[in-house]
Every structure is written in structure tokens, then in C-alpha cells.
Design brief:
This protein is of the alpha/beta class and about 300 residues long. It contains seven helices and 17 strands. It has two domains: about 180 residues, FAD/NAD(P)-binding domain; about 120 residues, FAD/NAD(P)-binding domain. The protein is elongated. The structure holds flavin-adenine dinucleotide. Flavin-adenine dinucleotide binds next to helix 1 and helix 7.
């Protein structure tokens, strides 16, 4: 059989696309991928998704979205898409998608909602304290650290933005920067360097995080490998990674136009990619906002775009 709409990914973008596509009678099939429920399932509480005045546990929220899609007839398949063959005229020759290299599915339209993954330093204690002081999203989790001392790792534009955002909430923000300079644009550098709440620790690397059950401090090494090398300790409650994200788009790079960081490029305000009948929604096409509500909104747009494509 040829599906009208195949949705790749079960995060907020994928589930929202499924709700809209199934309510439009398009009978979509959604492929869960390696992380059912998406990135949000790696955090402990979501307080900024509209409709949950008391906040919501992420597994609950993602289950609510899944059940809503299921109610209107979305079908689900577990597994990961491992290969595809995209068609130039999918209404005549459908797109082909392989799940786990074995199962072949055919579809007139595909909505890609494969998300992105935050980069981590790779130190053991990041895992130990994940969700207990370690976060890769200041916009999401900054509020939990009001009036506390936190650290941001990174020296680019994102790190400067996150540090400035946190400075508006926290008592003090350390920026831990590997290089002797910031890589950010001049305007972002000025904003950080002129903010009395931000202290930039140049030429510092994080060795490990410390604390009883939650982050209470970090051991840093200053000028690693030089004669001036020195171990320093800072007392912090939150440790925010801001060293970039990797969109989950490697699968599509032979077909779709991506930007230099690998995000899928879409046409204007739509979710259309450069291939007919292929749409991209959520973090895989969003280097800027990376929030669940934005991903959900673009999932809605992708389903509407797919519906329009099928009816033309
Ligand atoms: C720690 C943390 C806390 C956060 N907190 C908040 C918050 O409080 N509020 C907020 O609004 N946002 C928060 N975010 C951001 C939010 O999680 C993302 O913006 C949102 O999940 C993006 O949704 P998405 O649907 O685009 O992708 P994702 O949620 O990343 O989902 C991607 C989906 O694609 C699937 N997939 C990937 N590759 C394949 C493949 N090859 N085949 C099939 N499927 C595949 C995965 O299994 C997954 O289901 C947080 C992020 C993190 C990391």
C-alpha cells in the first residue's frame, strides 16, 4: 500500500503533524524512531507548554499527544528509518522509506520530524547529574535556577545568548570558555562582557561536577597543559551546555538542501523542502527556536502543507 503521509519522528512536531493529518482523513503512519516521545523525555518537568498551568511531566505530555493522534486514526510503527529513496513525482512514483533496513514503506508525502540533539562535553558527571543540575536548554530550564549561581559552557553566540538570558534570572552566571576569546559576534560579546552578573572564565575546561545528588559545584582546569595550569572550584547549582546542537538529518543529506550545520532548509514560511511532497518540521529544520511549542506549530504546518500537496 502507498501511504498518503508518512511521519518520521515522535516528538512534538511528529505527533502534532499526526493529529492534523489524521483529522484531515489522510490516515498517516508515524514512525517512532530511537527515542519515542523525542527530546523532551530527557527532562523532568515542562512548565512552558501552553495548556498545562501546573506544568507537566514530559512522558505524560508526550503520551497525551500520542493518544490524541491515535484517537483520530494515526497508526504507529516502532523502529528507525535507515534508508530512503525520494521521488521527483511522488504522486506517480511514491517515495520509498526503509525501517531498520528491512521494512519498505511507500508514501506520497513524508513529514520529517527527526529533531536535533544537544552536544555535551562527554564527561562522566554530565550523565550522573543529568536533569539534576545539568541542562542543555537555558530557555527551558533557567527558571528553575532563579536567584542561584549557574555556569554556561561555550563561547559562541548561543552561549552568550544563554548567559545573558540566565543573567536576567540568576544571581550570577559563570561562562566557561575553552579559548582565550569569545567566538560570538561583537554585539553578543559586548552584551556579555558588560553584564556585571556574568563572569567569563577564559581558558577553562570542566573536569567534573560535584554535589550530593545534585550539582553543587564544578572543578575546572585553567590553562590545561601549560606551566600556569591550575585546578579551580566554583560553587554552582546549574550547569548549562551551550556548545551547539546536531540536527538528526544525516539520512537526508543526499536529497535535501541543508544549511552548513545540517538543518533542513525550507521554503519561506512553509515546511516545503526542495523535494516535492517532502516536508520538514520541528528542530530538524529550526536552528533558532528549538522549543516544543514551536516544533508542534511547525508540525501543524507540515500536515497542512502535505494535505494541500495531495489535493493539488
Ligand atoms: C533537556 C531538554 C529540556 C527541554 N525542555 C524544554 C521545555 O521545558 N520546553 C520546551 O518547549 N522545550 C524544551 N526542550 C526542547 C524540546 O525538547 C524540543 O524543542 C522539541 O522536543 C523538538 O521537537 P521535535 O519534534 O522537533 O524533535 P524531537 O523531540 O527531538 O523528536 C525527534 C524524534 O525523531 C525521531 N527520530 C530521529 N531519527 C529518526 C530516524 N532515523 N527514524 C525515525 N525517527 C527518528 C526520534 O525518535 C524522536 O522521536 C528541551 C530540550 C532538552 C534537550
Amino acid at each position: 500500500m502507498t501511504y498518503n503521509v508518512l511521519i518520521i519522528g515522535s516528538g512534538p512536531a511528529g505527533y502534532t503533524a499526526a493529529i492534523y493529518a489524521s483529522r484531515a482523513n489522510l490516515e498517516p503512519l508515524l514512525i517512532d524512531g530511537p527515542q519515542q516521545g523525542g527530546q523532551l523525555t530527557t527532562t523532568t518537568m515542562v512548565e512552558n507548554f501552553p495548556g498545562y498551568p501546573d506544568g507537566v511531566e514530559p512522558f505524560q505530555m508526550m503520551d497525551d499527544l500520542r493518544r490524541q493522534a491515535e484517537r483520530f486514526g494515526t497508526r504507529f510503527m516502532s523502529g528507525r528509518v535507515t534508508k530512503l529513496e525520494l521521488s521527483q513525482e511522488p504522486l506517480k512514483v511514491p517515495h520509498k522509506v526503509w525501517v531498520e533496513d528491512t521494512e519498505l514503506l511507500e508514501a506520497k508525502t513524508i513529514i520529517i520530524a527527526t529533531g536535533a540533539a544537544a552536544k555535551y562535553l562527554g564527561i562522566e558527571s554530565e550523565r550522573t547529574y543529568h536533569g539534576r543540575g545539568v541542562s542543555a536548554c537555558a530557555t527551558c530550564d533557567g527558571f528553575f535556577y532563579r536567584k542561584k549561581v549557574v555556569a554556561v559552557v561555550g563561547g559562541g553566540d548561543t552561549a552568550c545568548e544563554e548567559a545573558s538570558y540566565l543573567a536576567g534570572l540568576c544571581e550570577k552566571v559563570y561562562m566557561i570558555v575553552r579559548k582565550p576569546y569569545l567566538r560570538a559576534s561583537q554585539i553578543m560579546q559586548d552584551r556579555v562582557l558588560n553584564n556585571p552578573k556574568i563572569e567569563v572564565l577564559f581558558e577553562h575546561n570542566t573536569l567534573c561536577l560535584t554535589g550530593e545528588g545534585k550539582v553543587e559545584g564544578a572543578d575546572l582546569v585553567y590553562k590545561k597543559g601549560s606551566a600556569e595550569e591550575e585546578i579551580r572550584h566554583i560553587a554552582i547549582s546549574g550547569f548549562f551546555l551551550a556548545i551547539g546542537h546536531k540536527p538528526n538529518t544525516d539520512l537526508f543529506k543526499d536529497y535535501l538542501n541543508l544549511n552548513e550545520e545540517g538543518y533542513i532548509l525550507t521554503e519561506g514560511a512553509s515546511t516545503k523542502t526542495n523535494i516535492a511532497g517532502v516536508f520538514a518540521a520541528g528542530d530538524c529544520a529550526d536552528p533558532t527556536y528549538r522549543q516544543a511549542i514551536v516544533a508542534a506549530g511547525s508540525g501543524c504546518k507540515a500536515a497542512l502543507d502535505a494535505d494541500k500537496f495531495l489535493k493539488n
